[in-house]
Amino acid sequence: MWIRIYAIFIKELKQLSRDRMTFGMIIMIPLVQLMLFGYAINTDARHIHVGLVDLSQTSESRAVEQALVATQSVDFIARYRSIKEAEVAITKGEIRAVLYLPADMTRRLFNHPLYDHKQTDSQLTQPIGQWIVDGSDTVIASTIRALRNMPLDEVANHTATRTAPSFEVVQYFNPEQRTVVNIVPGLVAVILTMTMILFTSSAIVRESEHGNMEFLITTPVRSIELMIGKIAPYVLVGLLQVAIILYVGHWMFSVPIKGSILSLLGSSILFIFASLTLGLVLSTIAKTQLQSMQMTIFILLPSILLSGFMFPYDAMPVAAQWIAEALPVTHFMRMIRAIALRDASLLLLGKDALWLGLFTIGGIIIASLRFKKTLG
Amino acid sequence: MISNESEQVEYAIEAKGLSKHFGNNIAVNKLDLKIPKGSIYGFLGPNGCGKSTSIRLLTGLLEASEGDVTILGNPLLGHEEALKKRIGYMTQKFSLYDDLTVQENLNFVGAIYGFVGKRKKARLEELLALYDLEKQAKQFAGSMSGGQKQRLALACATLHSPELLFLDEPTSAVDPENRREFWERLFDLCAAGTTILVSTHYMDEAERCHALAIMEEGNKRADGSPQALMDAMPATVVEVSGNKLRQLKQTLTQHPEILSAAQIGAHLRVLVKKKVQDPLSLISTLSDGRETVLARPSLEDVFVTCTGDRYVD
Ligand SMILES: Nc1ncnc2c1ncn2[C@@H]1O[C@H](COP(=O)(O)OP(=O)(O)OP(=O)(O)O)[C@@H](O)[C@H]1O
Ligand SMILES: [Mg+2]
Question: Where in the numbering of this chain does the ABC transporter domain appear (chain B) (predicted)?
Answer without folding.
Answer: 13-242
